[in-house]
Amino acid sequence: MAERPVEMSALRDALFCPSRRVFLASAGALVAWAAMPKAGFAGQARDPRFIAVILRGAMDGLAVVPPIGDADYPKLRGDLAIGTPGHEDVLALDGFFGLNNAMPKLHAHYQKGDALLIHAAATAYRDRSHFDGQDVLESGMAGPRASRTGWLNRVAAALPKGENARPVSGLAAMPTVPLILRGDAPTLTWTPPNLKTASADTLTRLLDLYTHEDPDLAKVLGAGIDVEAMARGDGADAAGSSGGITAAFTALASGSAKLLAADDGPRVAALSFDGWDTHTNEGADSGRLSGLLGALDAALDTLATELQPVWADTAIVVMTEFGRTARINGNEGTDHGTATTALLMGGAVKGGRVLADWPGLGQGNLYEDRDLKPTTDLRGVLKGVLRDHLGLAEPVLTAAIFPDSIGVKPIDGLIA
Amino acid sequence: MANTDGVTAYSRFGLGARQGDLARIGSDPRGALKAEIADPHVAVIHGKDLPDTVAALTAVRDRQMARKAGTLDKAKMAKPMLIEYRARIAQAKRAEIGFGERLAAFWANHFAIESDAGALVRGLAGAYEREAIRPNILGKFEDLLLAATRHPAMLAYLNNATSIGPDSKAGERRDRGLNENHAREIMELHTIGVDGGYTQADVIALAKILTGWSFGQSEKQPKRFGRFAFNPRAHEPGAETLMGVKYSQAGEKQGEAALAFLAQAPATATHIATKLVRHFVADVPPQPLVDGLAKVFMDTGGDLKAVSTALVDADAAWQAPASKLRTPQEFLWASVRALDAKLPPQLAQRSLTALGQPLWNPPSPEGFHDDTATWLAPDAMTNRLDAAQLLAQRTDIDDPRLLAADLFGDALSANTKQAIARAESPQQGLSLLLMSPEFQRR
Question: What percentage of chain A's residues is helix, strand, coil (to nearest 5)?
Fold first, then answer.
């Protein structure tokens, strides 16, 4: 009598069942520092939470927070200049800048005063490799491959030790710790269960590679996916249901927030959302980027909702490795650039404004005649937040957290 | 420096390169492959937590008793299959080039058993592969054939354990009789092949010859329990004629003589050579290469080390284009090796199940097919991408460009190199590397 192992068929369905396939712009992972003292920093009643959100792939800041008041903006962005006459509307910020209308919830937080947008910001990295750019973003060093530890881990290690240093229980082990949290301080990992990571963007790239190198594999891969749904960039699966990316982003945000909200939970965390490398058909108005921003909007709002009890003591930084070219390329997309937008959010943030030393987009204003010129060092933003929110002293920030940043002053007044 | 032979050694003959392997193999990849199989026990697995067949059968029986008694506690149950998976992951990582591992997988699949056939076969599958297959892959084919044929897992799977000679003592007393299953598969699949020239009469003759080949199933007989045991009471008495040769030996000797004959038949040499070349080189095996291996097989009396060495020595085996798709198992092990990935056994089992090639659970006694068309199912590549992305998250390697160069050197196409370099994250770059034609094909 044949006895079927139940685990096989059940797992087959749960894990990779094609009919349930959802192509996600892959949600990254939460990694949280487990041993943060409950009492935040010594002797104070505050119990601050700090979350770093990494957008991998280089987000196009000019399409997220377009400078609608800059006369050169429509010239550079042509057909895709959202927020200018004849194009998709944007949400009003301060008159000079607008917010992509895929982010209404962020806009509401901005109006409440707990979202701060930062423009023309960049790390110390000035080349255009994703890997190296993310390495610098996460290591906090002045150049790539300079450290095996991440700045957020060094932050955790520098915080005063509390009594509540036991690891959080009940977390599923997750693969690996991203560079930003690698180091001596203990970390734990969590990732949403049963979420496939098959990314529409990765599929597109693979299909392109196969088309050039291996037509047989291209045929098979092409048969397995709904190319049109992918092109729409809305994360729709083959059956036509939508919301794949949003579901993935919010699942990650929701689970992370629940852990962070717990009394004995972690206090420092890193999340990442992938898929921002928009070389073709960027879709700032209604396509791929718009879909990603909508998903990010939902995820950030989920963090705010789930962290409500501790929102007043929460600060979130949203950042990406670099920006994209100021001009649209030949494929209605943008290529790797330099400065871009960053975002601070949370009840602890002094928001409701855009922080920018605007470099302009006119002749001679672009970095290497192609990118938005960096005028704000992201490390200055982070130093300001870490000093005023987590209580880290300036010498520690310059010596241990962001070495080689002695000339980069912490920005004052970011934290309420 | 170009080292395409080095790349071929790892992809075509081995389990794929680990970091630093391509540089290590140096200028004599053939020598390195032959050095790996110089040790006839290169693929033997040792492990304190790995049960031998007797212990594995005891565990199967204990579980059946507990189920009957209603005391089976699945949560507390050891997971025998996961222990086996864990050992195979470690073995895949440990293997130098992995030629021995590839041969072990080839022979385990040649002498396939099916875990889904029942609790007994499933419970013994890992021990079967470790005890009957792995120690014998570089010895005489006849010894491998005997070890596989005599193993309780095989005897249970192909029903020889319950095959009874009609005129034997047991047959006269009971209303049970001959079961042709095992005898047929020995000829059709394990030795001379479906075109080997046998008839239905030969199947019946071999089935009668093998009656009594069984194993101890009662724990009350500890010396026999879980071990091959010849049962004279079930053995069909008298001489039998198999493919024109008369076997008059008594008892177990009759079967040994018949299997020795089949193991050394020219049709077996051709069958094995064809399968080996199809597996390692090309779906349409180049005939001269097949003929060469078959000749070595015949000349050496089925010496599998000599045959494996001849494959490595043949220029044709290196010159064929990398047209074959890695099987799911080969893909998974190669990925684990490339990334030095931390892969828990549960995930390995899940991934291989999703990709359609769980360990020791093929759809039939024929084993898994290893031609490319079999694995190019409509959702094959998307499923592989799922697995690739899973693995890419389970490594500490964070520069896919360096890894790609390390594993493939100059053999990487410009398109693949560019796709990896342009990836938006290290994980995406690693996924694309694992999915690249260079990694998928061998």
Answer: 35, 15, 50
Taking the Cβ of residue B54 and every Cβ of chain A, the question of whether any pair is shorter than 8 Å is answered with no
ipTM of this predicted structure: 0.89
What would the 3-class secondary structure string for A271-313 be? EEEECCCCCCCCCCCCCHHHHHHHHHHHHHHHHHHHCHHHHHH
* pLDDT of the residue at B78: 66
Taking only residues 143 to 162 of chain A, the set having a beta carbon closer than 8 angstroms to any beta carbon of chain B reads 145
Q: Count of CB atoms within 10 A of residue A88's CB?
A: 17
Sign of CA dihedral B401, B404, B406, B411: negative
- For residue A113, count other CB atoms closer than 10 A to its CB: 14
- Report which of B133, B131, B137, B113 is spatially closest to residue B302, judged by C-alpha positions: B137
Considering only CA atoms, which of B47, B96, B8, B64 is closest in space to residue B409? B8
Q: What local confidence, expressed as pLDDT, does residue A252 receive?
A: 81
Checking if the pLDDT of A258 tops 90, the result is no
Q: How confident is the model at residue B378 (pLDDT cuts 50, 70, 90)?
A: low
Closest CA to A204 of A130, A129, A134, A280: A280
Residues counted in chain A: 416
CA atoms within 13 A on the CB side of A303: 35
Does A192 lie at the interface with B, CB-CB under 8 angstroms?
no
Mean predicted lDDT score pLDDT of chain A: 81
- Token pair listed for B115: 């875990």
Compute, in degrees rounded to 10, the torsion defined by CA atoms B208, B209, B212, B213.
-120
Indicate whether A194 pLDDT > 70: no
Weakest-pLDDT range from A5-9, A53-57, B398-402: A5-9
Q: How far apart are CA A359 and CA A374, in angstroms?
A: 8
Beta bridge partners of B241: B246
C-alpha A291 chain-centroid distance: 14
In this complex, the residue of A56, A224, A277 whose CB is nearest that of residue B381 is A224
Answering whether pTM is above 0.80, one says: no
Collapse the DSSP code of B299 into the 3-class scheme (helix H, G, I; strand E, B; otherwise coil) and give the result.
helix
- The H or E element spanning position A155 is helix A151-158
The two tokens of residue A343 are: 């975002």
Q: Does A6 touch chain B (CB under 8 A)?
A: no
- The torsion angles phi and psi of B226, rounded to 5 degrees, stand at 75, 5
Residues 125-184 of B with CB under 8 A from A: none
pLDDT higher at A269 or A234? A269
- Sequence-distant (≥ 6) Cβ neighbours of residue B328 within 8 angstroms: B351, B352, B355, B356, B357, B375, B384
Q: Do A212 and B400 touch (CB under 8 A)?
A: no
**Domains of chain A, CATH where assigned:** 16-195+240-401 (3.40.720)
Residues of A in Cβ contact (< 8 Å) with B398: 131, 135, 179
**A199 and chain B: CB distance < 8 Å anywhere?**
yes
**Three-state secondary structure call for residue A268:** strand
**Which residue of B354, B424, B435 is in closest CB contact with A16?**
B354
Q: In this prediction, what percent of chain A has a pLDDT beyond 70?
A: 77
**Does B426 sit within 8 Å of A5, measured CB to CB?**
no
